[in-house]
Amino acid sequence: MKFSIASPAFFLFSLIIAANAVSVPVLPREGKSKGRGKGGHRYGGEYGSDGVGGARPAPDSEDWTNATAALIELHKNLCEIPSIAPNELAVGDWLATYLRSKSFTVEKQEVARNRNNIFAYLGNKNRTKTLVTSHIDVVPPYINYTYHPNGTITGRGTNDAKGCVAAQIKAVEGLLTKGLIGEGDVAMLFVVAEETDGAGMIKANDLGLTWDSVIFGEPTELRLSLGHKGVLRFSIEAFGKAAHSGYPQFGINANEDLVEALHILSKMKLPGSDLLGNSTLNYGIMGGGTAPNIISPYANASVAIRLAADPLLVRALVNETVKDLPVTLTWFERFYGPQYLDYDVEGFETRAQAYGTDIPNLKGSHKRYLYGPGSILTAHGNAEFVTVTDLVKSVEGYKALIMHTLP
């Protein structure tokens, strides 16, 4: 059974599910810890009784009901607009209109033709202490938004990362409504191209702005991230000699050379770290040959390494491993090493991530936090989903992080 978001049944199920959410308390501005902290505590808050922050409000609370419905509505609108990179124009335009309707000042930063970052802030001060940011592009294919009776929402981008976008916006709106933030405190940046080449966040550096703290939104299962792996990529090519497959002795099989090299690479021991675990290698794309009855004259593969160690060290190890093999490696110019993040906020569980983000693409000396609803284990898959409970929790989590970053 499917529900319309405007139907009474939809709201009933949403509120029943979300009423059990255990949310993060909004932290006071004073008494914060400094630097990187230990974190690691289960959080509770104004929607739960198993932690600090008071008792859960009654499920029929009008403010609570309206806030939950508005969150789900915003999330639905974002997810129903396809935005597979590089086609993010429509969702960006819709988002800009929405933010202006909420009295934010909105700037569109052109990244490329028909591709815009959306930058929003209060009043006339685009220089703020804190930035919250996520991305509005998604991976293919488009999957329809569907709300399920158990409070699960499936569809492309529901998790990665339009759940983060919706929750971040509602967190800022909520703090503004309560008078806890004002002009010059918080800005929002929603970028394109995170899922491809990072061009959106790279372009954001041209805004010429700096922040004390930046809160990045990606699916972390509501845990504050300790850090995430880096990325190193290369292509590998083998050049052979074509011949009739009945007379292989007169040819050189590039496919065989490539397969041998990839097998050796897959067995090599890569360095790692205690925090991020092992570095891992994946050859995700392979190609070679021209026909079954022709000895392959050419073969290639694209390889990505998720780095838990120094990228230059790993690169040197890979080069050494294949130096005597009949293959050619070409390294991608753009790479980054492991990212170690800030987590000096009480009340959050913590975990390191194996995936990559836009975090290294935004330059500056700001503190860096990573947090969001949903799991990376369902992102990019055919069953991508987020729960209403996690969406509600994450709004409170973002509120806590924002308040923690403000003096």
From TrEMBL:
Residues 1-21 form the signal peptide. Residues 227-308 form the Peptidase M20 dimerisation domain. Residues 29-60 are annotated as: Disordered. InterPro entries: Bact_exopeptidase_dim_dom, Peptidase_M20, Peptidase_M20_dimer, Peptidase_M20A. Keywords: Hydrolase, Metal-binding, Signal, Zinc. CDD domains: M20_ArgE_DapE-like_fungal. Gene3D superfamilies: 3.30.70.360, Zn peptidases. This is Peptidase M20 dimerisation domain-containing protein. It comes from Tuber aestivum (summer truffle).
